[in-house]
Design goal:
Elements: E1 2-3, E2 7-9, E3 15-17, E4 25-26, E5 37-40, E6 43-46, E7 51-52, E8 54-59, E9 73-78, H1 92-95, H2 97-100, E10 108-109, H3 112-121, E11 126-129, H4 138-150, E12 154-159, H5 165-171, E13 177-181, H6 187-194, H7 199-210, E14 214-221, H8 229-242, E15 248-252, H9 267-279, E16 285-288, E17 297-298, E18 305-310, E19 313-317
Parallel strand pairs: 9-11, 11-12, 12-13, 13-14, 14-15, 15-16
Antiparallel strand pairs: 1-6, 2-3, 3-4, 5-6, 7-10, 8-9, 17-18, 18-19
């Protein structure tokens, strides 16, 4: 354990955690909603510092990030724990581990410097903080991010976006790109299925875009939960209101965790959602978890296919110095031709 950052001591040995938008008030001997930050004698402690539960080398497209150094690999890490309790979580066996195992904390002890060395040795272009919510392990994640930046690696977050402005201040100096999991647009959906509310997520997306971080968004479309025309249109309009160039990944739902009885998303629903997103003014809409051409990037000006993908793998990248080979339009994103990045 190490002492956490971003908390205040209040009366009777209680603490106020300022890491995420739950703003937990934690009594002595108790933990926050994430189950990995504990009040010990009036001091908030991180229980997952240097406790890595998962690490792997992934294509950057798996995050998914389609407009950020396509075709490169990301060294991906996670600790247990999450500040959401999504009923449909695909990684519940690690994200909900402390909650489902009487508070037990597991993970291999690995220093930040060792993680960075492994990432460099693997030939990865970036570090990805993913699989579970990186916010809840911020003390460790920040240490890795600093080391990664010094080693010439990019830093990528796959996040639910529920972090506070205070947390963003810590993250932003080292963050290059993020995929924000926008579960839907209604507080009802967030309350009933996720355990939170939507406004802090949109605030985080706005904050990152303003700071110059490359942002993409993912929405898992769940039948009878967030798949109505209105819900999909309002979600797309919320993204467009921040920036129409944010790529929107519409991901197919498969039964998992507490929603194993729920049917997978029909293909027709995903195709309908794609049309709604484009009609709402989003320039790039992708269909995920489904074989086909839904992962292909086309030029927003002339329609030329410029990046062809299959199964989160780049089959062909036709960009020339970051521009469409047919009309010269530069698609929004971060490409190898962008020397400033």
């Amino acid at each position: 354990m190490i002492e956490a950052i971003l908390y205040d001591r209040i009366s009777d040995y209680r603490v106020h955690c300022r890491l995420c938008s739950h703003g937990c008030i934690i009594s002595d001997g108790e933990r926050g909603i994430c189950r990995v930050r504990e009040n010990v004698d009036g001091r908030l402690m991180s229980l997952v510092y240097e406790r890595v539960i998962a690490r792997d080398v992934d294509p950057i497209e798996k995050k998914p990030l389609f407009h950020f150094y396509p075709g490169t690999r990301a060294f991906s890490i996670a600790t247990v724990g999450c500040n959401f309790t999504c009923h449909h979580c695909q990684n519940h066996y690690i994200s909900q581990y402390p909650r489902d195992h009487a508070g037990q904390i597991v993970g291999e002890r690995i220093s930040a410097s060792k993680i960075v060395r492994d990432a460099v040795a693997s030939g990865c272009h970036s570090m990805a903080y993913t699989y579970t919510e990186p916010t809840i392990a911020l003390e460790y994640v920040l240490e890795v991010m600093r080391g990664a930046r010094e080693a010439g690696l990019r830093n990528v977050w796959v996040t639910n976006g529920y972090f506070t402005a205070d947390a963003a201040t810590e993250i932003l100096p080292y963050l290059d790109a993020a995929n924000i999991d926008l579960k839907g647009i209604s507080d009802r959906m967030y309350h009933d299925i996720v355990g939170g509310n939507v406004r802090p997520v949109l605030n985080s997306m706005e904050r990152l875009v303003r700071a110059g971080v490359w942002v993409e968004a993912t929405t898992v479309v769940i039948p009878e939960i967030n798949d109505s025309d209105d819900e999909l249109r309002w979600t797309a309009e919320a993204i467009r209101g921040i920036s129409p160039s944010i790529p929107w990944h519409i991901s197919r739902f498969f039964p998992a965790y507490r929603m194993v009885e729920q049917a997978p998303t029909p293909i027709e629903t995903l195709e309908r959602a794609e049309g709604i997103g484009r009609a709402a003014g989003l320039q790039f809409v992708y269909i995920g978890n489904l074989p086909g051409e839904g992962e292909t990037t086309s030029c927003r000006r002339c329609g030329e296919r410029i990046i062809l993908r299959s199964g989160f793998r780049v089959k062909e990248n036709r960009l020339v110095e970051g521009a469409c080979p047919a009309c010269g339009e530069r698609p929004p994103g971060v490409w190898f031709s962008d020397a400033s990045r």
